[in-house]
Structure formats: C-alpha cells, structure tokens
Request: fold
Amino acid sequence: PGSALDQLKGNDLQLEVVIRKDAYEVGDRIGGLIQRIPRDAAAPQDVKNLAALMVQVKLKFPDKQEATVLAEPDTPYDQIVQVMDAMRSTVTRNGTAVQRSDLFPNIAIGDAPVRKGAA
Reply:
C-alpha cells in the first residue's frame, strides 16, 4: 500500500505539523494529512519518528525550504522547540564524521486549528 506521502502530486507542498496533546499531525495544507504520529510520554519515540518522516518528505520535495508548526495553546515551549529541531535539519553519522543537512529551515509558527468536537 502506498503511503499518503506517495499520493502528493507536484512540487507545491505546504508542509504543516500540528502539535496535539496526543499526536503530531503531519500534513500538506492542500493535500491533507500525510501521517499522524501518536505521542506517548512513556515511550517518547515520537520526535524521532517525526524526524524520520521529515527526511522522507525532503527526499520527495528536495527544493522545499518552508514549513509551518501549528501548536495547541497549552503546548510546552520545549515541545515546540523539539518539533522545530526535528523539522529544521538532520544529522547523519559516517564513521566518526557527523554531517548536518538542512530539511525545512524556514519555519513559521501559528496556532493549531481547534479540533472538531473539542470544547
């Protein structure tokens, strides 16, 4: 089965990551949800999973530099910084050499849309 990332067409990605209490919602403003990454405080793999997905998105859209982070009002600042770091760049190790590569370095921040049915 193809992923939602494979379904994206053209080169007009408008990458958004919405930070929710229970998940990161990675999507394209036009194409919709790419992937929902559940957040689990007991096993905090979520930021690593987000970073891995950002690498996949960058491979498909190598010229894209911009992304948006949309956070719910009570999101801790530290959480926003971790998400931005995961989106901004990646580090690869080649033996003892460490190489940093830009992913989506131009990040805008805004408020998450209120979920339907949420009070």
